[in-house]
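Q: Hi! First time doing this. I have a protein sequence and I read that you can turn it into a structure. Is that right? Here it is:
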Amino acid sequence: MKFLIENKEKTTIVLFSGELDKAIAAFIIANGAAAYDHEVTIFFTFWGLNTLRRNERISVKKGWLEQMFAKMMPRGADKLGLSKMNFGGMGPKMIKHVLKKHNAMSLPQLIELAQEQGVKLIACTMTMDLLGLQEEELFDGIEYAGVAAYLGDAADANVNLFI
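A: Yes, that's right. Below is the predicted 3D structure, encoded as structure tokens:
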């Protein structure tokens, strides 16, 4: 008896940007692909890692430079600015208002949905080291790996995006 092994389509996304509109787009695409039964990986590097930061301040030991990065970077998905029309923080408020008005999911809701659908969220460990981010500062349910892990997923993927 022969069994057919169905290979799932794979989608990978590198989220390099720490901007709200780009993070929302990445998660809409990821959730859409997961809904179509794709295996989905989002690899968070550099400013994209801010999307995974906990909203609350976490007490961890850091050097001076790492402390400065921590103060300058937004803490969590709700604090990201826009790529265009940020207007001192008014732009993100307007986008959040429009999302709510149209019953669209917020970025935190999109992240939660992605986790529920089994989207693999990977934080780049090299970038975490460079920026002084520690695992305790990021939320639960994510994986930690280097670029080789992303490349392993991307090599087999049908769709590879860099946002």
